[in-house]
UniProtKB/TrEMBL annotation:
All copies of domain FAD-binding, residue ranges: 6-330
Organism lineage string: Bacteria, Pseudomonadati, Bacteroidota, Chitinophagia, Chitinophagales
InterPro entries on file: FAD-bd, FAD/NAD-bd_sf, Flavin-dep_Halogenase_NPB
Source organism per UniProt: Chitinophaga hostae
The protein's name: FAD-dependent oxidoreductase
Length: 418
């Protein structure tokens, strides 16, 4: 069997894989990417966060993405009935990027993969990893092309960026159940001719439809808008018929979407994704590191997936370079802990969203601008800024703030009665 020799094998050409491949390649190492699918390919995850821009910049991707003319994104809007909460990233507490993009991932991911290839990193499409043998930190990976031909890649290090494929956790039984409840999404791309009725295209809108059920509205520069419903799997069962029947009934059931999306043309039939939350015990091992969705994916509500993918890949790539140089790396302290810091901050916000705690905070009139800026930084993906109390105390600060708002409202209404 043919064996190719590289310094670093990267599994998957999504954002995690390409960011890692580019940064390691720029340090002068021989990198190869293997990707199971043919690009462009569909993947969900269309709304980015400003923090991802720092990783995309270090990977040398910004100019190529800019040239594609994707929709710029300046904030996030939350809607519940008549109540509205609009965050613009300009208001955020942490210094950093104040904008990003809303992208069709097929085009976005192909742009990243083409750019990394043009830098000199070979990307083998329709090539699936089927097995890995480790000998210390060295490894030999077996891959299979679309015609069933097998070959081997010997590497000094592996970066697993295989997303929902979860190659290394599956091959080595590292999978762990998530502590989040299973949820389901029903979504499509719509030809949004009545967009001007409601939303500015330059932000994501999240609509609270019912407790625990929400809608994402992500406009693209092309006039197409991604729209998806997320909720408990049982919630969708009350709607009869095909997935398209359910989707159109849901659009009709929500006042915010009813008129704008009535009889809307769909770019593809509504699709379903469910039970996406997954995690792994350890994000590293002798000769490998897990990045992006392979580490842990929580929930789509705060559009954190691509940002966590890019940032984990950025952090991992720098550590891989040090390891290849023969320097000591404390993977637990330098990789696992910061990665979990980001994941756990978002976990607190995801839980607070589904528990209704964020409804109390987001839809309070006359919000304190300092607190709003601090929460805005989290929504921009700046979840490593420990000077932000809503990052540092992510597990308690939201609950405390919601409780204070509720008590103040109660006091106000009782003094109004007196
Ligand atoms: P991926 O983008 O999945 O790339 C992994 C690549 O690895 C794939 O191309 C795959 O083909 C390849 N691969 C898999 N197995 C193998 C193998 N055996 N051999 C070789 N290659 C392999 N995130 C956001 O940031 N914003 C959003 O608005 C958002 N919305 C979402 C909505 C829903 C309903 C869901 C479920 C997720 C959403 N996400 C969102 C999350 C987002 O989809 C992921 O976090 C993101 O795509 C992760 O990037 P990645 O590079 O880790 O993996």
């Amino acid at each position: 069997m043919k064996t190719e020799q590289v310094d670093v094998l990267v599994i998957g050409a999504g954002p995690a894989g390409t960011v890692a491949a580019s940064i390691i390649h720029q340090a002068g190492y021989k990198v190869k990417v293997v990707e199971k699918q043919k690009f462009p390919r569909f993947v969900i995850g269309e709304s980015l966060l400003p923090r991802s821009m720092e990783a995309l910049e270090e990977a040398g991707f910004i100019d190529a993405i800019k040239a594609k003319g994707f929709q710029q994104k300046f904030g996030a809007k939350f809607v519940k009935g008549d109540a509205l909460c609009d965050f613009t990233f300009q208001e955020q507490y942490t210094p950093g990027w104040t904008w990003t993009w809303q992208v069709t991932r097929a085009d976005f991911d192909k742009t990243l993969a083409d750019t990394v290839e043009s830098m000199g990193v070979p990307v083998s499409y329709e090539t699936t990893v089927t097995g890995i043998r480790f000998n210390g930190s060295d490894s030999v990976t077996t891959v299979e092309d679309k015609d069933g031909h097998q070959s081997e890649i010997a590497a000094r290090f592996i970066v697993d960026g295989s997303g929902y494929g979860r190659v290394i956790p599956k091959l080595f039984n590292l999978e762990k159940n998530s502590n989040l409840q299973p949820r389901k999404a029903l979504f499509a791309h719509t030809v949004d001719t009545r967009r001007s009725m409601a939303d500015e295209p330059n932000r994501i809108t999240a609509v609270v439809h019912k407790p625990g059920v929400w809608i994402w509205i992500i406009p693209f520069a092309t006039g197409v808008t991604s729209l998806g419903f997320v909720g408990d799997p049982e919630f969708f069962e009350q709607y009869p018929g095909t997935d398209e029947d359910k989707y159109r009934a849901l659009l009709e059931a929500e006042p915010y979407t009813r008129e704008r999306f009535r009889d809307v043309e769909l770019v593809f039939e509504p699709r379903i994704l469910q039970s996406w939350s997954a995690t792994t015990d350890k994000f590293y091992g002798d000769g490998f590191v897990l990045t992006g969705n392979v580490t842990e994916f929580l929930d789509p509500i705060f559009s954190s997936g691509v940002t966590l993918a890019c940032v984990s890949a950025q952090t991992a790539a720098k550590l891989v370079i040090r390891k290849l140089k023969g320097e000591a790396v404390d993977w637990e302290k330098e990789y696992m802990e910061p990665t979990m810091q980001g994941v756990n901050t978002f976990r607190s916000y995801v839980m607070a969203w589904y528990e209704g705690i964020l409804d109390t905070i987001f839809f309070k009139k006359d919000a304190d601008p300092v607190i709003k800026g601090q929460i805005c930084s989290v929504l921009a993906g700046y979840v490593w800024d420990m000077s932000n109390p809503f990052v540092k105390n992510h597990d308690t600060a939201l609950k405390r703030l919601a409780r204070t708002i509720e008590l103040t409202d109660k006091l106000k209404s009782s003094s109004a009665i007196e």
